[in-house]
Amino acid sequence: MSGFLSWLKSNIVIVILGILTVVPLPVAWYIAGGMNKQLREERQTEATKALRDVEGATVTYTLPVLGENEEEISDSGPANSVKTAFYKVEREKREQLVSQVKERAVEFNAKNHSALVPGLLPMPERGAPAQLLPFEMAKRVQATGGDNATSAYDELFRRLRIRSPLDSEVLREQIAARKQALMTQIAPGIGESEMEESARKQISQQLVEQRLGALETHARDTSFYADESALPPAVPTTVPTVAPSVETCFNWQADYWLVSDLLTAFAAANDQFDTRGVGGNVIDGVVKRVESIQFKPMIDAAAAQTAGMPVEMRDPEPMGGHGRDYAAASNTSPIRRGSADANSVVTGESFTGRGTEPNELYDVRTVKVTLIASYKKLPSLINAISSENFMTVLDADIYSIDPWDLISQGYYIGTDYPVRVEMEIETLWLRSWTKAYMPPAVREQLGIPEDVSTEEGPA
Q1: Interior CA angle at 113 toward 453 and 447, to 5°?
Q2: In angstroms, how far is the first alpha carbon of the chain from the final one?
Q3: Chain segment 157-190, per-residue pLDDT in tens
Q4: Cα(58)–Cα(72) distance, rounded to whole angstroms?
Q5: How many domains are there within the chain?
């Protein structure tokens, strides 16, 4: 025994290490077994819960609505790979269709509308040439009623064959010359007072026929009657001596786009009755004469100037030399139903529903047009207006007139029954393309943030 103790004492380290090696094995086995059981139970609980969640889960599939009267397409149920693939394809088809419609809408709204003076809008570059651009713009929108080669309005009138009635003084001279020729032919050497009654009636009848013939020839060469006096007051008649502001230039540009659309629509309405293949005319068409076009500026140019424009680009005070009370028109609150600006003027709700809620997609401008038209052909005029652009006739008041009053003023209109029509027309302008022409102060007044996209179409 003493020998074992002696050995144990001398080999105590080896003995201790051996015990530490053998004893933990059963202990580790016992502990590991308990931990594995607990871990298995926890994982089993988690797996059971996940399975219940999956079995009870539902997926809602939807497709974007394309039409106002279309019901929402929705389907809820367990996830299904076939159904998921189907809805993915259909959604892509609809989104592509919506994108194409938006592109067509912008193209339709912006067609034939470009800058009258390139390089001016939204802001001209600094330098001497840029300072001349506002004057060039004033020349382009100047309506003189003459043969002004640089005036966009004069070009528009010539292109659409919009004319004034036959000059009464010229016609009077022609009739006087014709009368003298007839007197020489029918009763040579005899004064008018000495002529027989039959000769006087013959001459009078031929003079009436010549007068009506000249009026009819002029009417058949004219799409419809109008002159620069029918244009809204904001259209300048002279070029100012001080450079107009860039905001005023934007107003002029937007006004021209609007007038161009209206007059083009009227000409297109008359073209529907063209029987000669040369375009519509006063006698056969629905529109006989445009008496006035009235609308307010798109923005308040004076207020926009105070938003930080350079002094050299501001309008003088007062703005003189424009005619037709330009200053009063430019300082009038603009018609902008549909503006996102909380301070914008709302003229009232129309049946279209546009402008009742702020939005960032478009601006709405309302126009009042007074014209002479054929009563029975009025439906074709309304259709032509809506076909030219996003324009809707909101209201039309009709008044009877005396056709002989028109003829006495030189407005020969044929045999159609004429009426005076006062139309209220709502026009829509998508900001996705007009924004590119807007100076910063105009965007600010309209409530258009610089970092917000306006790529959506009309509501």
Answers
A1: 35
A2: 107
A3: 999 999 999 876 777 777 777 777 776 777 777 7
A4: 18
A5: 1
Beta strand 162-163 with 224-225 is parallel
Residue 387 lies in a domain: yes
* Cα 230 from Cα 299, distance rounded (Å): 21
Residue 395 domain flag: yes
Average pLDDT over every residue of 356-373: 87
Separation CA 337–CA 368 (nearest Å): 15
Q: Is 170 inside a domain boundary?
A: no
Please report, for residues 119, 325, 382, 458, the alpha-carbon distance to residue 388 in angstroms, rounded to integers and kept in the order given.
28, 30, 10, 16
pLDDT band at 452 (very low <50, low <70, confident <90, very high): very low
CB 279 within 8 A of CB 161: yes
pLDDT single digits (tens) 235-256:
998 889 999 999 999 999 999 9
Residue-range definition of the domain harbouring residue 390: 112-161+222-446
**19: Cα within 13 Å, side-chain hemisphere:** 6
Residues in the chain: 459
Q: pLDDT band for position 122 (50/70/90)?
A: very high
Residue 283 domain flag: yes
